[in-house]
Amino acid sequence: MTTLVLTIVGDDRAGLVSSVADIIDAHGGNWENSELAELAGAFAGIVEVSVAADRADALRGALEGLAGTLAVTVHLGSPEGTASAPHSVTLDVIGNDRSGIVREITSALSARGVSIERMSTQTTDAAMAGGRLFEASITVTLVAGVEIDDLVTELERLAAEIQVDVSLAD
Predict the structure, then answer these.
(1) Could you read off the pLDDT of 25-62 as tens digits, one per residue?
(2) Predicted model pTM
């Protein structure tokens, strides 16, 4: 089997996911994992698909047929997937929204060789105080040599500096 990773983007409308799923199914592919969302009127997502190696090119060509409705980019995934890191933790971040929060947090993680497995962010209206709140849930894997206590210390320092709350869950 071959693993393909699809990125899809287009103007949001009913039936977009169904059209991609129909093409995958028609080519013997299996929809494995995905993250899909409507953002500011656009529909965007990433989908992991497994398909027989001899059918991958045909699937890729059929997905290109969606041009005009959806922009689909097909990437070849690694055959064995990603090796699991020894330890995963989830960071929950909340604070008053401002420019640079994602850059600051991801830079601190990257500087320590920490890899982001999954990240979800959103801004919402602050109920009582007015303004906007920034919220993120970030699942990271710790590589050998990265101690969780050191990461916690750095994130606590950063949280105080950029005025957000960061909590960790194993």
Answers:
(1) 999 999 999 999 999 999 999 999 999 999 999 999 99
(2) 0.74
Q: Tell me the C-alpha distance between 65 and 84, whole Å.
A: 35
> Coil, strand, or helix at residue 13?
coil
Query: Do residues 108 and 157 touch, judged by C-beta distance below 8 A?
Result: no
Put the strands of the sheet holding 2-11 in their side by side order: 30-39, 42-51, 2-11, 71-76
Specify whether the CB–CB gap between 47 and 5 falls below 8 A.
yes
Q: Where in the chain are all domains bearing CATH 3.30.70.260? A: 2-76, 87-169
Q: What is the DSSP string of 46-61?
A: EEEEEE-GGGHHHHHH
Contact 91, 168 (CB under 8 A): yes
Burial bucket for residue 52 (CB in 10 Å: 0-12, 13-18, 19+): middle
Q: Give, in words, the CATH class of 87-169.
A: alpha beta
CATH code: domain 2-76 is 3.30.70.260
